[in-house]
Design a protein that fits this description.
The complex is a heterodimer of chains A (297) and B (846). Chain A has 297 residues and is α+β, with helices and mostly antiparallel strands. Chain A contains seven helices and 15 strands. Chain A has a five-stranded antiparallel sheet with strand order 12-11-10-9-13, covered by helices on one side. Chain A has a four-stranded antiparallel sheet with strand order 3-6-1-15.
Chain lengths: 297, 846
């Protein structure tokens, strides 16, 4: 499947900002089942300095600063990617390692720190009370890890109501757990908390997914959004991705951009701006399947 | 004196070892001379020496701040006249141990931020590092030149029951105290010169020479004359005194986060001349507060983009960001093994016994012994205080255990060391107090080694048998004496220092702004005092039963006081006017009341404090006495009589401050900005007094009296009499206070002074001869020069007031405000660099 993604962020200030420094995590990378054919980023006004780097988690990010007066900042990322079905599609869940064994392996020096770092709590993934009990209902003794994870994924999908506006980035996980409401990011953080409280490695994946319009209606440009899901580490199979929001084992419709411990590590765009005024932010994401268009031609 | 100490030690000091006395009641050899000396001088002279030491420190303005205590600012620094003493032989061991430990920690640090072999091989548990908030992922693979990544290291040491020195804490982020150590030594040298000479106490100055050399070696830019700034969290920080002290003595520029900005990858200092490139930052700001873009976005102490500038190697930050990961009590448990592995040596200096709870066996041991242990979080922070197991109830212990069980790797148990006592001058005799010694180690990059300061900061506990030793809780500091010649005395002579004192004195804009306000508050306070004195005199003379509204002189004085202090409604409110005493007292002593004298003086002092690195030591003594007078004023002024007395004292001290600066300050931008502030404020107050006192026409007697008071307020009555030898006439008064260029109290004199100082500031509009602020001022000057005093001194027959004079003065005041605004905008506007965090706040909603 081939996709084009256009991700545009606008910051509009009431009074001109004189200076801003920013970090942008919007650069997708290629792997065995995701090939980035094109990526470009347009920033206006033109940054005074700009440098692409790799972070601790292996993501590419862009640091840039705008050092002159501006009332609007626009960052437009555009990518064209080819997705293949990931290898984990063919795993038979019942054949995977019992989760306790995975735990034991992770806690030995056999496992590398790159993997182990994802079983520790993090700022948005708090290992609060009650989570362990919730997780243990899926992670029953001796259960193969992938089977248990699928079960947990479905439970979260069923128990939690998708409720835009109920949470924001600062909402503590305890509130999400108590009210069983939230959006993709909250479900991802909650899934991670369940894994990590058991000492299993889970990481946050940020990216995009195409949303399909209701039957018979045209798809609106910019109506898509960035998305978040998780990956669990299964020895022998590497990272396997689950999407609790859609009750899915991720296949070839998810475009991944960055991974980290939680949202804070991969915030799509964050910055410090020198300005006395309030700002308004607009984000639009547009995901299009390209091959279908070509087929129509 | 010594005899009784020895006896006391034998019977009452168990279980502690003592630094001076042996268990058999003898004196350790390194203390012999001192003990003899103390016996010779006796308690009375010791008490005098103690006072003398305190006086030396006070005179040098040595202070520290206590957090969370409203009166905790600028506490005098306490120094025990009795030092901590190391014999030459023992010091050799300590020194060797410290160098080894620093080398070891440096290797660990380099590995953690590089290949992480130690974690891969299981020598350091992964959880101990990855759970530590000082492990900065952003700093991974970011190195400074050479093998030494840890540049400054400090540790707290104490003597354990086995007689050896043990390490209690490692300090690797931004260790403090070395400035105090220098001040302690300076005070001791002045009070005990012979004692120091006879004991061959080693000098500690080489520490900073080595430090300077290392900076110069390490910086990649501008090696010959690097611009070094010391980044301080600001004047309310506990150890702000030493930030200012170290800056001025090392030739660094003292800077706060708001003084610096990142542009084009470089770090720049905002000065009144524009931006100047910074090559090295010595930071006293904690790691995660240093860059709100990459670390804590709620920090206003840091520099946005600093981490990226470090990555681009355009600035050198010391200690490098990330060193705090070594401030980790859990790590202590692994150091012996690491020493063997990395250095092939046993660890010379033992750490206090530590069990890291991240290992099941160790956790069980900690649980078993919990009542005898200190429980520490592996990360030291305000929310992670050490817990003494013995202080907890059964229920609390259970709760603690549960907390540890939930995240065992965050905790370590440490033995409570019964560390030794040292003689301390207390209650007019020598008493045994538990003491801790802080050492200072610095990289010597030229010789690829580490140098230990032969001395350091020792601190003793306030109570007998108390282990909590900290200045925050009222402990006392001690100088630390290492006796005898250094082994390698010949080789410690380092190359001449390469960092030259700055030729041009850089003035950060924020410092400039503070100086400007310092000048303004100085004059505001002085004018307020003078007008208040007139008012109080007039009030005391007034008949008790008369209504103030019917007393034109007193009423006018009160109204002018309100407009000068801007403390409205004040005396414009008739009910307050009926009973003016409370308002008058508040205007003198209420520090919360904006515009009151106490408020102005407090503002004066806090601006002075923020620029303390720019003021001379003698100035500090005067500021101290102003501060004392202010405290007295606030606490003991209960009547107007007392208020008057206090005003008298205050005005003399304020003038002493001014006089001293006139004598001492070099004529640099600091001086000019102080004076621009001063004269703008004087001119505005001068106008306010003339406008308030002379613009209404009453009976002749009252007007005369008001003229006299006006002259007195400006200290010009004598001049008037001498010049005019006549009765008071409005024309004469106005001429003297507005037009006479040779009268320093005249408006024209004040305006010309402002211009004189403005001229020296860099004019950024190159093309024009006159800057905007000088044009505004020129307008005011010209207006005054052209004015016709005879016309201004005629009352308007309709309103019965001097309306033309009033309008004239209003014009001048407005022009002064304009000038001030332009100066502000031009030289200080970028100090108001408020910024905030923005981020994708819309949650992906799918």
């Amino acid at each position: 499947m081939k996709y084009q993604v256009i991700h545009i962020t606008d910051y509009i200030y009431e009074f001109p900002a004189t200076l801003c420094h920013n970090l942008m995590f919007q650069i997708p990378q290629s792997n065995a089942f995701q090939t980035v054919e094109e990526y470009s980023c347009d920033i206006s006004p033109k940054p005074s300095s700009e440098i692409a780097r790799s972070d601790f988690f292996g993501n590419k990010y862009l640091y840039f600063s705008v050092e002159r007066s501006h009332k609007k900042l626009t960052v437009a990322s555009k990518s064209i990617l080819e997705l293949l079905p990931p290898p984990w599609i063919s795993i038979r869940p019942e054949k995977t390692m019992p989760w306790e064994k995975v735990h034991a392996w992770l806690h030995s020096i056999e496992a590398s720190s790159d993997i182990r770092q994802y079983y520790l709590g993090s700022s948005h993934v708090q290992l609060i009370e009650g989570i362990r009990e919730y997780a243990l209902k899926s992670f029953t003794p001796g259960r193969p890890i992938m089977e248990a994870m699928s079960h947990l994924n479905t439970r979260i999908f069923t128990d939690f109501a998708f409720t835009p506006g109920f949470t924001d980035i600062s909402t503590p996980l305890a509130k999400v757990f108590e009210h069983k409401k939230g959006v993709c990011q909250d479900f991802a953080h909650f899934s991670l908390a369940c894994l990590r409280v058991l000492g299993l490695a889970g990481r946050y994946v940020s990216g995009y997914i195409e949303t399909l319009p209701p039957p018979g209606k045209p798809k609106l440009v910019g109506s898509d959004a960035s998305h978040a899901w998780i990956a669990v580490y299964i020895p022998g199979h590497d990272w396997v991705e689950f999407d609790a929001t859609n009750n899915l084992l991720v296949s070839d419709k998810h475009i991944r951009v960055a991974v980290g411990r939680d949202f804070a590590d991969v915030t799509p765009l964050k910055g410090i701006v020198y300005s006395g005024s309030e700002q308004e932010m607009k984000v639009s994401v547009d995901v299009q399947a390209l091959e279908e268009e070509l087929a129509e031609d | 004196m010594i005899e009784s100490y020895l006896i006391d030690k034998m019977f009452n000091n168990a279980p502690f070892l003592d630094e001076m006395a042996t268990d058999q009641g003898k004196i350790h050899p390194q203390w012999e001379r001192l003990a003899k000396y103390y016996d010779q001088v006796g308690p009375e002279r010791m008490a005098q020496f103690h006072e003398e030491v305190g006086r030396q420190l006070r005179e040098n303005g040595v202070t520290y701040n206590v957090y969370g205590d409203p009166n905790g600012m600028n506490r005098p620094w306490m120094l025990d006249p009795v030092p901590m003493v190391f014999s030459s032989e023992e010091w050799d061991t300590v020194e060797e141990g410290l160098v080894q430990r620093t080398n070891l920690l440096n290797l660990v640090l380099s590995d953690l931020y590089g290949p992480q072999t130690l974690i891969k091989e299981g020598l350091i548990p992964f959880e101990l590092i990855y759970n530590h908030r000082g492990f900065l992922r952003q700093a991974h693979n970011v190195k400074i030149d050479g093998d030494q990544q840890l540049i400054q290291y400090s540790s707290d040491l104490a003597r354990g029951p086995d007689g050896k020195m043990w390490v209690l804490h490692d300090r690797t982020d931004a260790p403090s105290g070395s400035g105090y150590t220098f001040e302690n030594r300076a005070a001791m040298t002045r009070v005990f010169p012979e004692l120091i000479r006879e004991n061959h106490v080693r000098k500690i100055t080489s520490y900073y020479q080595t430090f300077k050399n290392t900076l110069s070696n390490l910086t990649t830019n501008n090696k010959e004359n690097p611009r070094v700034v010391l980044l301080s969290p600001g004047p309310t920080n506990e150890t702000f005194f030493e930030h200012a002290y170290i800056s001025s003595f090392m030739g660094f520029t003292l800077a706060f986060g708001e003084d610096l900005t990142v542009s084009d990858g470089y770090v720049w200092l905002k000065t009144i001349k524009g931006l100047e490139k910074v090559d090295v930052i010595i930071r006293r700001v904690d790691d995660v507060f240093c860059d709100p873009l990459e670390f804590r976005n709620d920090s206003h102490l840091g520099v946005v983009g600093l981490m990226e500038a470090v990555r681009q190697r355009k600035v050198l930050v010391i200690n490098p960001l990330g060193c705090r990961v070594l401030e980790n009590p859990g790590l202590m448990a692994f150091l012996p093994k690491l020493s063997k592995h990395l250095l092939g040596e046993d660890l010379f200096l033992p750490s206090v016994a530590t069990w890291w709870c991240g290992q099941p066996k160790e956790m069980e041991y900690v649980f078993e012994k919990i009542e005898t242990l200190v429980i520490r979080n592996i990360y030291r922070g305000p929310n992670h205080k050490s817990i003494f197991g013995g202080d907890l109830s059964k229920a609390e212990l259970q709760a603690l255990k549960q907390k540890i069980r939930r995240s065992p790797y965050l905790y370590a148990g440490q033995e409570m060391v019964e560390f030794s006592t040292t003689p301390t001058w207390m209650n007019n005799k020598l008493e045994a107090r538990n003491a801790v010694f802080r050492s200072y180690v610095v990289a010597d990059s030229e010789n690829k080694s580490y140098k230990v300061m032969p001395g350091g900061l020792s601190r003793s506990s306030p109570e007998q048998g108390a282990f909590l030793v900290s200045n925050q809780t009222g402990g006392m500091s001690k100088d630390t004496w290492v006796l005898g010649k250094a082994k390698d005395a010949a080789t410690t002579v380092s190359k001449p220092i390469r960092i030259q004192p700055l030729v041009r004195n850089v003035l950060p804009s924020r410092t400039g702004e503070r100086l400007f306000w310092l000048g303004r508050y100085l004059e505001r306070s002085a004018y307020t005092v003078r007008l208040m004195r007139m008012t109080l005199l007039s009030y005391n003379e007034a008949d008790e039963d008369i209504h103030i509204q019917e007393n034109p002189v007193l009423n006018t004085l009160l109204q002018t006081l309100t407009s000068m202090t801007s403390a409205f409604p004040g005396f414009t409110d008739k009910s307050i006017l009926k009973n003016p005493e409370p308002e008058l007292l508040d205007l003198v002593r209420d520090i919360e009341k904006s515009g009151s004298l106490a408020y102005s003086i407090q503002s004066f002092l806090s601006n002075a404090y923020a620029v303390r690195d720019r003021l001379s030591l003698d100035t500090w003594r005067i500021l101290d006495s102003i501060s004392e007078e202010l405290t007295k004023m606030r606490q003991s002024v209960k009547t107007l009589q007392q208020a008057y007395q206090s005003l008298d004292n205050m005005v003399v001290k304020l003038m002493a401050f001014y006089g001293l600066n006139l004598d001492n300050m070099t004529r640099e931008p600091t001086w000019h900005l102080l004076n621009i502030g001063r004269f703008i404020e004087s001119a505005v107050n001068n106008c306010t007094i003339l406008r308030g006192m002379l613009c209404v026409s009453f009976d002749t007697e009252s007007n005369k009296e008001l003229m006299e008071d006006t002259l007195r307020c400006n200290e010009s009555l004598v001049t008037y009499r001498y010049r005019y030898r006549s009765n008071l006439e409005l024309q004469g008064v106005l001429s003297l206070l507005m037009l006479h260029e040779d009268n320093p109290r005249s408006l024209i004199f004040q305006l010309l002074e402002i211009d004189l100082h403005l001229r020296t500031l860099p004019n950024r509009e190159d093309t024009e001869l006159f800057s905007i602020e000088r044009k505004k001022l020129l307008e005011a000057i010209t207006k005054i020069r052209l004015c016709d005093v005879d016309k201004l001194a005629v009352a308007d027959p309709e309103s019965n007031g001097f309306d033309a004079l009033k309008a004239f003065l209003d014009d001048i005041i407005e022009l002064l405000h304009d000038t001030s605004d332009v100066v502000y905008e031009k030289y200080f506007s970028h100090t108001g660099s408020s910024y905030k965090m923005i981020q994708t706040s819309v949650i992906p909603e799918i």
